[in-house]
Protein 1
Amino acid sequence: MKILLLGSGGRESALAWKIKQSPLTEVLFIAPGNGGTDAYGTNVNIKPTDFEAIDKFVTDNGIDMIVVGNEDPLVAGIYDYFESKPVLVVGPSKAGAALEGSKDFAKDFMTRHNIPTARYRSFTAETIEDGYRFLETLKAPYVLKADGLAAGKGVLIIDSLDEAKKSLKEMLDGMFGGASATVVIEEFLSGIECSVFVLTDGNGGYRVLPVAKDYKRIGEGDTGLNTGGMGAVSPVPFADERFMKLVTDRIIEPTVKGLIADGITYRGFIFLGLINVAGEPMVIEYNVRMGDPETEAVMLRVDSDLVELMQAAALGNLGDLELRHDPRTAVTVMMVSGGYPGSYPKGKVITGTDRVTDSILFHAGTARNADGQLVTSGGRVIAASSYGTSIEDALQRSFKAVELVDFDGKYFRRDIGRDLMQL
Ligand code: AMP
Ligand code: GLY
């Protein structure tokens, strides 16, 4: 098959690594890719939301399947754009992508299909007074979410009622532009989170990928600002058989069936952001793609042909294909630019990647400069992913890789997976 993968982050590097291993893959293109994805295929300078340019590329190169890494093209309707054309798209239709594109839609979907999630209500500028009153009925901390896509920054968790009211007004006044014209206010849930990924064929067939946990904050002990992800671990010890049965019965099945009942075409990955509230799984959010940096750990544990699975899902029939999980543990540690997630320099020369043999390096924010040197080009630079017999073992291997790779200002968290080791 000729495959076009859209995106440029660590997630796409991990997907490209896995896609390349499939005997079904004849050629792989990555648009736009990064300084590392050219190890798995050919980078093409096309924006993932430029459907016309993608269309032309697909036609000119006889592409059989488009794998969409990031949410933007899905929310913009790439599935619908190509639906009547001779190319498969792995991903939901625009209607399905609203599970990520609109938190209000997602909450409404969960309510309609009886899927456990935090109690909530949605407000606009016209109903702000009701919003204030709703906040008064909740206990601190207060969770305010911009309805639309806000580059992962649209969720505020606030301790005081007065501050929460002030933030509600600011959000409705355009703190996140149009994305916060509607604000979802919900009950705060206390527990430990994990990410469950499901590949569905839109006809009731689905497979569950290895479960992972990501680490979002910049600082150790989960402190400081949110980032695009500092590391991930798979499997997650508390996501045991009992917990996963609850996840399947209460969340995955009703989600897959709910999409069909609502007439929504969905042939791709569903990302369930879950929280374990005293042993009961509840949904924090849906995403309509794989997670980053979870994918950089999860792909190591997919012991089946992902291309065959994605093709079958995109064709609408997973049939009896198996999705086997590798029993080993995988840990990924993200190296980031000094200053991230605030401002940071770019163009720093990266050395030592060729010395890493025991881990897999998934490039995220890297590029080649005019001299062909590998340089930093983003906040999250390279993820080091390793197999191990335990979280500690895999973590130590990733640390060894992180020691070998260097660039000015390199930072990483040393406590990835630590909370899970203590359970
Ligand atoms: P989201 O963008 O919906 O994933 O939210 C970002 C983060 O905010 C989540 O990963 C959680 O850590 C936190 N969060 C979101 N909703 C809640 C909630 N209802 N209770 C507690 N934490 C939440
Ligand atoms: N790791 C969270 C996300 O991909 O949204």
Note: The chain has a mean pLDDT of 97.
Protein 2
Amino acid sequence: MKKIGVLTSGGDAPGMNAAVRAVVRKAIYHELEVYGVYNGYEGLMEGNIKKMELGSVGDIIQRGGTVLYSARSEEFKTDEGQQKAIEQMKKIGLEGLIVIGGDGSFRGAAKLTEKGFPCIGVPGTIDNDIPGTDYTIGFDTALNTIVDAVDKIRDTATSHERTYVIEVMGRDAGDLALWAGLANGAESVIIPEKQESFESVVAKLERGQERGKKHSIIILAEGVGNGVEYGKKIEEETKMETRVTVLGHIQRGGSPSGYDRVLASRLGAKAVDLLMEGVGGRMVGVQNNLVVDHDIIEILNTKHKVNMNMYELSNQLSI
Ligand code: ADP
């Protein structure tokens, strides 16, 4: 392969820029031509594609968001949309494409590969909901953003002797909530994969109050439901003053952590290696600190699992 493309798609995640940088620099290092596709699959169908040089990715390793922008496209889900995208790539002479995004984006990459255009998926999402990799790019940064926010909320929770319900992102996965719960010493973590009963959460809060606890923090994953309603129920049941914070999109922004930058660099480079070998239809990941790759369809047919040992530990430490 002599000419490859790279795009970012779906929800943005801190570290996507570091991955784009790694793809571009690694490709140029191996004397490939590399093209940036703007606005995800939408831009791919429109031919919004520009040649990247070494300098195109200068000064972006530390930036959140994605310099290639991201978009969601319904049209691309159709055969015609995918055909349109392939024609645009053929016009320029691209032979392979690296897709940085979440599982929706990987479905698109799998479809293009099926149609004869080799693609490699790089997991970029704060949700950590992709099997075949221990971490996705952006997860560590988002976790640290949550940890920092909860520390601040804890200060005011203590001053006012309140219970706080903090809703965090993660779509259908509980990873962000679970990790944040452990890192912040939350009283309860409510995740979609294993719902602690409402009675048990209430009993824990009441035990804490009897012991003279000044505050309680409950971390609720967005996949479980609405934090505001959950907070109301808690207040009605316990009669303790309860406030709710929905952290929202601050979790998706900000400068990527050192870990995410390194992960993005390793995975972006591996994606280029695979395309150079003429391989498509794979996703890259990191497992036990080794860079690995898997069949993308197999990954899409596997259900992501949260680490239940960590969930147990979180319960044991918050008695
Ligand atoms: P993420 O990649 O973060 O999971 P989405 O689920 O929104 O984000 O997917 C991003 C884009 O990937 C969609 O807007 C769509 O263009 C493309 N995509 C999603 N699912 C499919 C599919 N089944 N077939 C083809 N393309 C898809």
Note: The mean pLDDT is 96.
Protein 3
Amino acid sequence: MRFGHFDDKRREYVINTPKTPYPWINYLGTQEFFSLISNTAGGYSFYKDARLRRITRFRYNDIPVDSNGRYFYINDGGEIWSPGFKPVQNKLDFYECRHGLGYTIITGRKNDIEAQVTFFVPINANCEIQRLKLKNVGSKNKKFNVYSFIEWCLWDANDDDRNFQRNFSTGEVEIEGSTLYHKTEYRERRNHFAFYHVNADIRGFDTDRDTFLGQFNGLNNPDAVTRNKSFNSVADGWSPIASHNVEVVLAAGEEKELIFILGYCENPADKKFMPDGSLNKAPAHELIERFNTTEKADKAFAELNDYWSSLLTQFHIDSPDDKLNRMVNIWNQYQCMVTFNMSRSASYFESGVGRGMGFRDSNQDLLGFVHQIPTRARERILDLAATQLEDGGAYHQYQPLTKKGNNAIGGNFSDDPLWLIISVAAYIKETGDFDILKENVPFDNNEKLAAPLFEHLRRSFYHVINNLGPHGLPLIGRADWNDCLNLNCFSTEPGESFQTTTNTEGKVAESVLVGGMFVYAGPDFVELCRRMGYNDEAKKAQQYIDKMEEAVLKYGYDGEWFLRAYDSFGKKVGSKECEEGKIFLEPQGMCVMAGIGVKTGEAKKALDSVKKYLDTKYGCVLLTPAYTKYSPALGEISSYPPGYKENAGIFCHINPWIMAAEATIGRGDRAFELYKKIAPAYIEDISEIHKLEPYVYSQMVAGKDAKLFGQAKNSWLTGTAAWNFVAISQFILGIKPDYDGLKIDPCIPSDMKEYTVTRHFRNADYVITVKNPNGVCKGVKEVTIDGKKAESNILPVFADGKKHTATVVLG
Ligand code: BGC
């Protein structure tokens, strides 16, 4: 069952009921000002950091679900409704929500009034624009009142949610014509404020929530709206809000537009106040001036669309498969931008206060984003590297506002360092910018400890080598990619967190996954050593890689698949000897991608075992059999009920590793089969089972052992986005940026006859047509470029701003 459809031409998903199985959301904003918006206009806005600069308030896991947003109310002669259905929830004559790239358009119609709101965050501006178009579609004149509503958050979302003894006394607002200002905390260290403006005269306003609502009322029936009269309340403490009241008169067929602007501003420290002590509103006036007419808003909206068009032309496929085109050209790349911006901080599953930018997460997100805006990827790499610790380890997370490593979470995730090598290599392959390796970057955000980025990669590499366990495999530390596999962590006391107590018998648990990852990432380190002229070091590094490969094959292979780990007692994890958790997905993907056992047969066997034991109709589960009881020796992984999350859920993030691994051994049919199992466009028809947005990937789909097999959770912010883009664009379609050119090495389903990819690469456009006359999966027979036969399947770097045409024949 579907709840909408794709409109590929407009690059939108069109939802035709407010009652989707869960709020289906979208993201507005591309740089600093961001908003989350659901299909009923729920959600919130923040500046840079969802925790520290939260602009509007949201109530996670409150009821009704999706509690709070930017809401409009229409009071049409006592008939009250909201264009986005919520919060009033009156039946509408028509409803539609179109989620597009960086904007959302919600339309509601009732009693001959059509209200359409376009929400977007303009490029290079710290505000959300809400264009409310009102049309009288009937034959009689209409006179009605429109009320806007947003609730301010007192900036630090974490504190806002709990420190009421203080916060109920701090709220301050100012009112200036049709602009309502939120200036809480402006008297102390803060230099920022927010405002909500409408470009029309208002009949009244409210800034005190409890006055606006009236006692015991909810947002569905605020006093101001039901009595059709704003109270002109001026908040003093408690909960400041902003609500305008505008009277609208429309003749039959007439249309009017109101432009609302929700903005964030900062003042220089010495210009916070006016001489009379009021807020210095100059930056707000400027921002309002930029967008306060239909013409200006039109222009800003067109700019946003152009921006997205230009980003998406960096990689574009034309194939006979509409769903593939839709995923590759629009939604997967869009999600990659969102994960790049948000890491794992703010979604409808991540509260914005828990996690900031993840070291592992953001390095991975970069893999799906780097071709879109390489300069921003560069900046991100330097930010991430600056949180690396001197020993090569890394803070697992940092807050985007401060860019400082989060001490509370610390480090000791054994895979973290290697992700930096992987992302830097991806960036250099995309851009050819080897100079980044010479950038001076602090360790631990301490300028005194700064060293060239290359040194950071070296420490990453040796962090693994300096932390090997009894089998010569990397020590797992607190965890590796799988946060929940806590093999050195004991928790014996009920109620104790899984991750705080350590095994006193010695932290010797080892990770086969990180071993595989070392072999996967290592060759890039070797290549970068060579490019830096460090040939001896390259040789030495290669020896370590070879040794690791041997160790993985010798101690990390279980006969038919790769083991997952050794626990802190030296017992195997993910082995046929285990009672539960006999086989894990991650090492099969990573080790094969690294090329381990490809020539000697272990790789193929491992992937056959994946198919045999881990595959389901909705994708591959992370392990099997699921753990049925909690085991302190395994940690959090065994705390989940069978079939959920890391305990045998279908972890969409790792499925593309298997696709890439299948492509590595040449099985294109299988790689694409797996791709289609989890790519949202292919499973739109089971939206009622899947439950979450059919236009983006979710982190997890409940596995075969779960009661709700097939139901997704944690949509949007997941490494799934980047890895699926890597799997489809590089491993399956085979367009791989490399140090000296664009390598073409497809591994496609045998019945895929032809496709064309337009790829912008280092200042030239490559139009690459892949032909498969003999129905093979892999093997480049012939390459021509600009009509001439090419020597190899690496298309050269032209960097001439021109278009170049390549034909690649498989066979
Ligand atoms: C985290 C990832 C982690 C994965 C598996 C996700 O929630 O964001 O960093 O690798 O879970 O545990």
Note: The pocket of beta-D-glucopyranose is lined by residues 344, 358, 360-361, 481-484, 646 (CB under 6 Å).
Protein 4
Amino acid sequence: MRVCIAGGKGGREHALGWLFDRFGHDVVVAPGNPRIPWATLGDPLDVDADLFVLGDDASVVSGLGDRLRAKGRLVFGPNADGGQLEGSKAWMKALLVEAGVPTARYGSFTELEPAVQFLKSLPGPYVVKTDYLAEGKGVLVTADLGEAIADAGAKLAGGAIVVEEAMAGPEVSLFALCDGERFARLPVCQDHKRVGDGDTGPNTGGMGAYAPVPFVGDDVLDRAYDECVGRTLAGLRDRGIDYRGVLYTSVMLTGEGPKVIEHNVRFGDPECQALVPLFASDPYELFAGAAAGHLTAEPVMSHDACVVVSLAAEGYPAAPRKGDPVEGLAAAANLEGVEVFAAGLDAEGRTAGGRVVHVSATARSLPAAHALAYEAVRRISWPGMHYRTDIAAQALEGVTP
Ligand code: AMP
Ligand code: GLY
């Protein structure tokens, strides 16, 4: 079949294309980037395909799903109505509260004074978020009330904000393939959002991920899917939203049980790069069935583990430097079990974005995948390249992060 990965130009879209190519489908990635083999660099609306899989959040939020469906296309990915889950945190939080989904206490604001009053009423630490799309980079978590107030003021200059109480506990990423009614689960992943080792420094789009996550028990997972995912989908249905596509739920495993940090309306990046190697059978029926509203197949996943290390450009996340020549990609990809997914690379193989490549390593066990990933990373270099050296480290040490 012909499958189009529609919208987006990063490592996630490369990985989705690679997944369908691996099972013999004819793949198009639109637009993609110059280092994705199947990229058109053009508009997905110009592509003819049997199935469209939406890639990035901006495309979903701006209604690419609606436009493709209006042309009679089969689309795995929600319409703009479902996109509000990610496009507006205030909308998402209101839906969670109405649907009885556990999440952090919050307030949404368009003016500073009530936001300050709300912040002062919280015990701290504090969380300040933009209510507009900020690609995972619009969140401050701080114990310092003064810093929270200053950040609220700065973010209000760009639009509405959401203020939350901070939750504590390990974070995991859940991926549900939804057909509007039912959903199928993919293996649980963990991302590493801070730029530095030991979860230090600013938040990023994600510096590395692995799957599956050994420390999450089945009972906790069942509860998280039921209370966080199932109830959200029911809430969407109650609002007349026929949500077909992946629902990516960031969950914090708190002392009071799993709670939603946020929902996203597309795959995680780099979690997607850790999931696609684990598919043990052709995912076409699964995705096409969900897109058609008849999810019948279950995902068939291998028992392997996958570790993804994201390699970032000098200055990421604040101001990534472009134009640095990247060496060693082919040598890394030559290792068995390793795929290098292109994110911020130009046609000449120079840095052209914040996260430049994602090194994805799959092996029989988490320790083996971890060792393989870093062996591959050591083959790649450019001036100013940086990455985390502790992806999956706590899980490997048996520590629940
Ligand atoms: P988000 O973009 O909403 O996923 O937030 C980015 C990161 O900020 C999350 O991965 C969490 O680490 C952190 N975060 C967001 N909301 C909260 C919260 N209410 N409590 C604690 N940490 C949070
Ligand atoms: N991995 C974080 C994200 O995709 O938003």
Note: The longest helix spans residues 218-238.
